[in-house]
Amino acid sequence: MFSVSNLCCSRGEKRLFSGVSFSLQHGEYLHLEGDNGVGKTSLLRIACGLSPLEQGEICWQGKSISENRDEFRSNLAYLGHQLALKEDLTPLENLLSHAAVAGRQLPLPEAKDALAQLGLRGREHLPVRVLSQGQKRRTALARLVVSTAKLWILDEPFVALDPAAQNALSEVINAHLTRQGMVLLTSHQAVSLAGQGRSYRLRS
Amino acid sequence: MSAFLAIVKRDLTLALRRKNEVITSVFFFVVVAALFPLGIGPEMNTLRLVAPGILWVGALLASMLSLGRMFATDYADGTLEQMALSPNSLSWLVAAKILAHWLLSGLPLVLLAPILGLQFDLSTNALWVLTLSLLLGTPVLSLIGAVGAALTLGVRGGDVLLSLLVLPLYVPALVFGAGAVQAEISGLGASAHLSVLAALALVAAVFSPWASAASLRIALES
Amino acid sequence: MIQKLFFYASPQNFYPLAGKLWPLFAVLATALSGWGLWLGMFVAPTDFQQGEGYRIIFVHVPASWMSMVIYLVMAFWALLGLTFNTRLSGMMTKALAPTGAIFAFLSLWTGALWGKPMWGAWWVWDARLTSELILFFLYLGHIALTSAIDDPRRADKAGGILALVGALNVPIIYFSVKWWNTLHQGASVSLTKGSSMAQVMLEAMLIMGIAFWMYAVAIALYRVRSIILIRERHTQWVAELPEVKAQMMKNSAGGAIA
Question: Hey, where are the domains in chain B?
């Protein structure tokens, strides 16, 4: 169970939002909506624990995330605007090293399957540098396929994906929700996922 | 493969695919060692006297030049964020990055030093001590430099600012490192200097990853 | 007592306190400087070896002391700020840094002015002077870092870590420079070499030391008020301050005329 209560955020002297509260149960997803610049990305970064908590509380399984940091982080997968890809490494190398840093020994066949699931079969051994923007995004998304994290926080995951890739991603997210995972995501497009879902509109 | 080794392996692979990181450090060291005699004069007695200082300052500057790169790319492409969100302690992951940095920017200097030392007609013993002092000292430079690099991540005028921050903190390593070689040359024996250098390396190894990790988290907050 | 401390940890409450206190410290600083300088310039005897020129130590030594003390105080505020996440700690560090740098610079200059008649050179690589130079660089680095970072909270935290790292390193740096100097039998600008210090000289130096300390507190409190006003300019309580209101009226009146 993931919950945030009474979050606020300021950019410089401007107060972006305040009093934000919501919670996620297993198998649920929350679609965070709002206009550009209202602070969706800032909210996600606060929820991850990257940005400081000025006010309010964030709880994982009933305990504040500052108390059980390691537990929270081992159950969190975050995909931000930056893809965290090394351009000179191949998708396979990127995936394997990322999994290792996140604390998981990823078997090679599983890594290859994950890349194949997102339409990158045959491209696992090319440097990321030569892939198209969409293919780079799909490489980054492959991390979700192999992730054992229960909570996914995704910032605009559907951006720059063609319809086929969008379907593939939806399938991945749905599978995660079916396995009792949780998803918090932002997207300018309408989100149609299986499982229990809510919208939360962020206003200034 | 543990997270620590994964990061070391990743950084080494990336650097070796680009190669310019290793080459820049090495080249700078060689150039400095060649420029000083041109500035001072070819008199061998003078050069032999100033050699420990010149070689150590050259290595120090070469090491300092490469510091800016330690975290900058990871910060820019989002890899650093992912490391901060890892259940592994960030201090441990940062230690891996510092090790990789030293392997790429420090170790080549250690290996090159005896060759450059020959240009200054240092005795074999002095060359040994020079190499050993750099072997103990360059990790200190990478460790201290890491804190500076983390503090100046994404800051305007970062590289020059980084040098200003880090140079005063480099002084002990320089004093004991160059001092070790001078002690050897003058017959006093370098063991005291090298012991202090080893102690500095140990203290830096314990504190620096932790201070750097704290600084990185601050940089990631915005 | 602890309640009181937490009360004043808020910039809003500290502002008027600093306003009341700084004039007191300024008066003390002036009085003590006057006393100390009188003692140093007129009462203290002519030094057997160094003549009259030595009197500059009554500025040089206290300035060195203060440059070190201020750095430690900055590190203390940094520790408080990083532990308790208080905004005021960062502001105090920022207020202290320029004064520390100035004392370090003063120490270097007076050291040179002392050294020239003694050694015939404007600079000698004396252990203490060299350490002072490095301390000066540490101050400059701190000021440069905190100025270069736009976000004040990040600047405070980064400056805090730098101050702590610096403070831990200062003993190591001093020790290594001392070692470097003695090993190479370098020059030493020292007061006590060859002559014992007269009681009144020590007294004058201590009084000047305290005078400089009072000055540092006064100027830091004065400076932190400006920093508080700038940092908190968007709050209600700043807008309602009489001096701020008066300035706003002056500004709008000036605009109307111009």
Answer: 3-220
